Each structure stands twice: as C-alpha cells, then as structure tokens.
C-alpha cells in the first residue's frame, strides 16, 4: 500500500514564543531552526518579520535549512488598503522566507468585534493577501483562526474564508482551534464535513491545548483527512500551549494505525534524536525538562512497582508501549517501598554490581530500603544514594575520609558599611588517612557554607571533587516513622555533564543536608575510582556462608 505524505509544520519559534516566560534571541532561533531541520520537519515557521527586531533580524538572512521550508508568519493585509500598500505585508515580503503563513479570521464574531469590518471585506483581505504572496513567488498558506468556533457559528462563512485562500493559490488552509476548547469528536465531525469541499491534501490542523486535547485533536483531524500538522516542540505556545510535536512525531512513526498509512519527513533514525531535541530546547530556555513527558521524559520508561519490574525484566514489552531506544530515551528501574527483589536486582545490575539472584543480601537490602523509606528516605529519586547503600551492604565502599565534626553558625549583623546582613559560616574537621584537615566555608545560607567547607580540602581526594557543583536542593518536611523529619534531596553535576542524586533524612535540616552532601562526594570518588585507603570497610550485611 502506498503511504500518503503528512507534512509537519513547526511553530515553536512563533507560537512557542507566545508562551509566558519564553523569550528567544536571534541566536536561539537559528539554533532551534537547525535542530528542527535536522529532525526532518517540513516547515520551520520562524516568527513574524516586522513585529519586533528579533524576528526582523532573524528573517533578514536565510538560516540555510537543508530540508525544511523557511516560513514566516503574519496577518492578512488591513482592510481598506491594497496588499501592495500594506506595511505589514511589505516586511514579510522583504524577508528571506520562502513560504508565508497568514493568520486569517474565519469566525464572523471576530470579524465583527476584533476587526470591525464586514464579512465580505474579510474574504477580500484573505484573497488579496494570498494572491499577492503567490505573485511574489512565495508559497502561501493561511492559518484560519478560530475555524472550529467559526464553523459552529456560521459554517458557510468559515468555509468561504478557506475557499478564498485555496481558490487564490494557497498551498494550505489550516484549520485552527485557536481558543483550544474543541473536543476530539467535534474535530472529527467538522473536518469530515470540510474535506467534502476541500481536499485533505490542502488542509492542515493547528490545535491549542486548553482542554489537554491538542494531540488527540490533531490525530483526530489526520484521521478525518487533513495532511498538514502544526505543532511545537515540548508543546510550547500561547496560554496552555500547542499540540506537542515531541509526542506527535513518535506516535505517527511508531503506532501502526498511522505508520502503516502515512509517511513523514522524519525517519526512524532521526526519531532517536527526539529526546535530545526536546531536552536541548529546555536547556536553551533554562527550563527543567518535564520528567513525566510522554516518550522523552525521564520517567517515561521508569518502572517503580515490583510487579511491573518483575515482568519487564522477562520481556520489556510487558510494560512498555514502545522501546525507549526508539525515541532515544532509556529504561529505568526505580527503588522504593513499592519494590520487589526484581527492582533491587535490576538496579544492582545497572550499577554494575554482580550479585547472585539467590543471595539473601538482596532480600536484606530490599528490607533495608523499605525500612528507610518508612523513616523518610526516598530512593526513587536518589539513585546514587541507593547505589552507595547497596555497595556499603556488600563492603565495597572504602572509608575515603572520616568527618570528625562540623559546626555551622548563622549570624545577623551590621557589616563594615553599616548594612544589616545575615552570614553563614561552617567549619568541618575531617581526617584523610590519618591527616587532620580543618576547612571553613562561607555561604549565603548554612547549607551553602557547609558544602563550601566540606569540599574545600579533602587532601589527596581534592582533585576528584574540584569540578563538582550543587545543582539543586529540595527540602521536604514529613513524618518519618512516627516523628517529623526533614528530607533533603540534592542534585550534583560535574563538568562532564553527569548528574547524580542523593538523599539525607534527619529531624535536623542541616544534618539531613550533610548526609546528602557526604553521599554526593563519596559517590563521585567511587565513580572516579579514587584510590581507596589501606583500611577497607566491613560489609554492613553479612555475606552468605559459602557452600
Ligand atoms: C492566533 C494567533 O496566535 S495570532 C498571533 C499573532 N502574533 C502576535 O500578535 C505577536 C506579534 N504581534 C505584534 O507584534 C503586534 O501585535 C503587531 C506588530 C502585529 C501589530 O501591532 P499593532 O499595530 O500595535 O496592533 P495591535 O497588536 O494592538 O492589534 C492588532 C491589530 O491587528 C488587527 N488584526 C488582527 N488580526 C488580523 C488579521 N487576520 N488581518 C488583518 N488585521 C488583523 C486587529 O484588528 C488590530 O487592529 P487595530 O489596531 O486597528 O485594532
Ligand atoms: C494561528 C494561531 O496560532 C491560532 O489560530 O491559534
């Protein structure tokens, strides 16, 4: 069966820039455009030339896309003036864009209230704008704004707007659910009616996510006949965002209902880049990646429940809807009080710890995890602390150094220029192979000061930890066992980009933080194969008697 072509139109750089808190520079735009091009999307809509200096500059040069069509956005010409005389259109036509996508009103209520013109004038603005674009040798298309609301209110007018574009040479008329309130069954019904008059290969879909149905609505529109999909990376976009390309692309390529019928510009090899693309965008925007994002989130293939893990290890298909590698993601097995022996074995194997499945220490370790979780520890987000717990149980963690004591002072005082300041100072006394070391650290808070002091001088181990940095620090007060305790989760990173998570629990926040900081340093020393001191630590769990 020959497959039909579906076209992907990415609007991260335009609708995505309409996300609260998102602000792209020209350089960001160039980088993302290249990323999208490499991924294999068909159109990269880069913004609105003439609307602001960033977009005008971005459109001044061709970004050198190899596959995607460089596309501008803009509104149709103002009523009452010709397309040749419209300054908004002039800026778009001066740009390096090869295709132009115009937002066109298709809801009579909007024509009346927002534009204050007649329906006939609106149709004429669409027709003239498209004609002028085609005359200049550019590919023209319209985003029929509020199409679904417009169709419900006045289907004849909504259809006339689409036809004004198509009849004057637009390659695409894109049906927009601008307010994002349309539901999948309505999309199916309306698109099925539209394709009776305009062929699906001239129609696109643009859905907003205000009822969390943008992806579902997009797929419903494809099933009903449209052949262009608009969306954004990570679902960025006005208000609640747009249809998420990062969810749509894997669905189109991996789900037989779509993969067997359609072809897209992204290959299965390119699909393996999608996790990287999604995280690169977050990195660029300084946003924490959504851990729970379908396909690409860190938790998308993370299994926690013992019953899941036990089956997953027999065959991943038991609990995975697609293989994580297909989207460049990874399988993760979590450890917690929801675990069984299978979780422990999988984690040990992932950490490179060789233990026989029948070794009684596996059950002992599981019991210890459950007991510690009851006391307030949480290992499903602190894999480095779990690995240390396991290796300590097996006697594999050297006593690199010993902390004799620490002290933290918090002082509020007037400084030399008479300003009231709160300063924190920490002193840590450690012993490294018999050598006593005392370090003092200052910080904007007690934990920061403690971290500074602890990592200031570890003697022969200092070079291994020089490039560590504390990335995140989360505190929760909870009831551990029967007492109120503080749980501190610390994320640490090093220069290579590796990140690891450790946990500490205590009724005292400084003590809990200190435990997590210590775990973080010891984990790093262990990963770096730092030389062990002469004396080896005894296992905390007894090895089985040899037979
Ligand atoms: C559905 C969408 O997401 S559309 C998103 C469009 N993107 C943006 O708005 C972001 C960039 N926009 C901008 O920088 C500015 O809005 C500009 C430069 C485009 C226009 O700025 P201004 O001229 O100051 O107008 P302002 O933003 O206040 O109002 C929009 C004007 O466009 C008119 N307009 C809106 N849609 C259309 C359309 N499809 N065709 C013609 N005119 C339109 C409105 O009636 C309004 O006109 P008015 O000022 O005569 O009332
Ligand atoms: C064009 C567009 O972004 C919309 O109608 O939502």
Topology, pairings included?
Blueprint: E1 4-5, E2 7-10, H1 26-39, E3 43-45, H2 53-60, E4 69-75, H3 87-94, E5 99-105, H4 108-115, H5 119-135, E6 139-145, H6 147-153, H7 155-167, E7 172-177, H8 184-194, E8 203-207, H9 214-224, E9 228-231, H10 245-254, H11 256-259, E10 262-263, H12 268-271, H13 274-285, E11 302-303, H14 306-314, E12 332-333, H15 341-350, H16 360-375, H17 383-393, E13 402-414, E14 420-432, E15 435-443, H18 446-454, H19 462-465, E16 469-480, E17 483-493, E18 499-506, H20 509-527
Parallel strand pairs: 1-10, 2-3, 2-9, 3-4, 4-5, 5-6, 6-7, 7-8, 8-9, 11-12
Antiparallel strand pairs: 13-14, 14-15, 16-17, 17-18
Helix pairs in contact: 1-2, 1-13, 5-7, 6-7, 8-9, 14-15, 17-20, 18-20
Catalytic activity: pyruvate + acetyl-CoA + H2O = (3R)-citramalate + CoA + H(+)
Protein name: Citramalate synthase
Organism: Tepidicaulis marinus
Number of domains: 3
What's the CATH first level of the largest domain? Alpha Beta
Number of strands: 18
Mean pLDDT equals 95
In CATH, the topology of the largest domain is named TIM Barrel
Ligand inventory: acetyl coenzyme *A, pyruvic acid
Helix fraction, binned, reads 25-40%
Q: What oligomeric state do these chains adopt? A: single chain
Please tally the helical runs, counting DSSP H or I stretches of 4 or more residues: 20
CATH architecture classification name of the largest domain: Alpha-Beta Barrel
Query: Compute the gyration radius: what is it?
Result: 30 Å
The biggest sheet, with number of strands, parallel, antiparallel or mixed sense and barrel status, is: 8 strands, parallel, barrel
- What is the spatial order of strands in the main beta sheet? 2-3-4-5-6-7-8-9
N/C terminus separation: 63 Å
Uncertain stretches of 5 or more adjacent residues: none
What is the global morphology? elongated
């Amino acid at each position: 069966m020959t497959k039909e072509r579906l076209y992907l139109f990415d609007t991260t750089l335009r609708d995505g820039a309409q996300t609260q808190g998102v602000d792209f520079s020209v350089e960001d735009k160039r980088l993302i455009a290249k990323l999208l091009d490499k991924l294999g999307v068909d159109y990269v809509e880069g913004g609105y030339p003439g609307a602001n200096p960033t977009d005008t500059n971005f459109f001044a040069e061709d970004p050198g896309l190899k596959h995607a069509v460089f596309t501008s956005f803009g509104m149709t010409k103002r009523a009452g003036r010709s397309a040749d005389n419209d300054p908004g259109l002039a800026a778009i036509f001066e740009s390096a864009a090869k295709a132009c996508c115009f937002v066109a009103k298709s809801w009579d209520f909007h024509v009346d209230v927002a534009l204050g013109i007649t329906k006939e004038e609106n149709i004429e603005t669409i027709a003239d704008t498209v004609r002028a674009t085609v005359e200049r040798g550019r590919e023209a298309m319209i985003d029929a704004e509020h199409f679904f609301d417009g169709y419900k209110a006045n289907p004849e007018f909504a259809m006339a707007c689409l036809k004004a574009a198509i009849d004057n040479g637009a390659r695409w008329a894109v049906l927009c659910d601008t307010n994002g309130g349309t539901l999948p069954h309505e999309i199916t019904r309306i698109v099925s009616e539209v394709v009776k008059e305009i062929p699906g290969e001239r129609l696109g879909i643009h859905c907003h996510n205000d009822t969390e149905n943008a992806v579902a609505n997009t797929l419903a529109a494809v099933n009903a006949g449209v052949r262009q999909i608009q969306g954004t990376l990570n679902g960025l976009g006005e208000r609640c965002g747009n249809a998420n390309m990062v969810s749509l692309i894997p669905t189109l390529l991996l789900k037989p209902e779509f993969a067997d019928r359609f072809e897209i510009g992204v290959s299965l090899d390119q699909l393996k880049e999608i996790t990287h693309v999604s995280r690169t965008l977050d990195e660029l925007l300084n946003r924490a990646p959504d851990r729970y994002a379908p396909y690409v989130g860190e938790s998308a293939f993370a299994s926690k429940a013992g019953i899941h893990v036990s089956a997953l290890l027999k065959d991943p298909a038991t609990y995975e809807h697609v293989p994580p590698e297909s989207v460049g993601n990874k399988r993760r097995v979590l450890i917690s009080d929801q675990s069984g022996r299978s979780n422990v074995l999988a984690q040990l194997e992932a950490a490179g710890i060789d233990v026989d499945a029948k070794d009684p220490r596996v059950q002992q370790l599981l019991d210890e995890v459950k007991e510690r979780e009851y006391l307030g520890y949480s290992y499903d987000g602190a894999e480095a602390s779990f690995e240390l717990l396991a290796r300590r149980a097996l006697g594999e963690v050297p006593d690199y150094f010993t902390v004799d004591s620490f002290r933290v002072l918090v002082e509020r005082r007037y400084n030399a220029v008479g300003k009231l300041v709160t300063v924190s100072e920490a002193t840590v006394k450690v012993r490294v192979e018999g050598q006593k070391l005392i370090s003092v650290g200052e910080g904007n808070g007690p934990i920061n000061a403690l971290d500074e002091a602890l990592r200031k001088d570890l003697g022969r181990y200092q070079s291994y930890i020089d490039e560590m940095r504390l990335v995140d620090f989360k505190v929760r007060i909870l009831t551990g066992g029967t007492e109120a305790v503080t749980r501190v989760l610390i994320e640490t990173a090093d220069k290579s980009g590796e990140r690891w998570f450790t946990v500490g629990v205590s009724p005292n926040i400084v003590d809990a933080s200190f435990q997590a900081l210590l775990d973080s340093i010891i984990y790093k020393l262990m990963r770096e194969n730092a030389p062990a001191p002469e004396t080896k630590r005894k296992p905390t769990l007894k090895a089985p008697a040899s037979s």
